[in-house]
Each structure stands twice: as structure tokens, then as C-alpha cells.
What does this fold into?
Amino acid sequence: MKIKTVMVLFMMICASLISHAQSDWQKKVHSEMSLMGHRNWIAVVDSAYPLQSSSGIETIETNEDHLAVLDYVLKEIKSSRHVRALAHTDMELKFVAEANAPGVTRLRGDLKTRLAGVPTDSVPHQSLIDGLNATSQGFHVLILKTTMTIPYSSVFLQLDCSYWSAESEARMRQAIKDAGQNATVREH
It folds into this structure.
């Protein structure tokens, strides 16, 4: 009986240590992942990204490496059963010169590697900021600030449903249209 008690205490201590090993931002991402769905966003941003004031936007200072934060968020999304990521990067990043921002060439390669397999596009930075502002009027946006000091290095992850594709949605909408129905369903 004493051995079982000691083992249970040991397991509780280990679980507590593991729990404390996670930072607050990691706990936040992990706990909110099951609540987030299509139309929610998670942005991993550089240290100069502005603090947006829309009520649906939550900004957390991670004090962590940019790529480590991105890796964690991508892992959490990938391990979820209900969402997938569509990645948007700043179009301007393609034009930042190594002479003006040492390390940018390597960063572009690191981002390409990490985002392999994730649908990705490049969008003007201001359009992404404006898009987050508009989205936050009705949906939650989580912004994770990192220690990155290379401009235009932010990665905006738009969450989408992993079990229902855009093609499936289009086919369904076409079937509704073909049936002469509108999107409103009447109850009998």
C-alpha cells in the first residue's frame, strides 16, 4: 500500500512539474484550441507588431523565439481534430534585404520549411492588420508577440475546418442552388 501511495505522489509531482514547464502563452493556446474554429486566427508576430485595440483581439507577449512559438502553434493546430491552418505571410518579407535586416534570408528559408504542407500566400502587411481588425468584430483573434526583430516576419494563421473543405462547401451550395432553394431552411 505504501508503494502505491509513493507512486501516486510521484506521478502527481511529475504532472505538476510538466504543467509548470509550459509557459502561460502555451497553456493559453492549448486551452483555447478546442474552442477555436474556422474564422478564428492565431498570429505569431515580431516584437514591433502594434497592439491592436479591437475587443476580439487578445495579444500575449511570449518573450520567446519566433520560430519556437510558430512551431508550437503549428503542432497544436496539427494535433487538433477540427481545424487546419491557412498561412498568410507579409508580402513585404520577400523584399527585405539582408543588408537591412541581417538574418532575413535564413528566416525566409526557415519559414518555408515550417510552412511546408500548409496552404500559404503572401499578402500586404496592412491588409493583414486590417483583416484581423475586421475579423475581430465577430470572432476571436489571438496574437502572440515574439522576440523577433526582423521586420515583416509575422505569420498569420487563419483557422479553417479540417473536416469540411472549400470544395465540399461549394458543391453543397451548388446543390442548394440547383434545387431552387435559398440558404434559409424552414421548419415544418
Summary: The mean pLDDT is 90. The two ends are 63 Å apart (CA to CA).
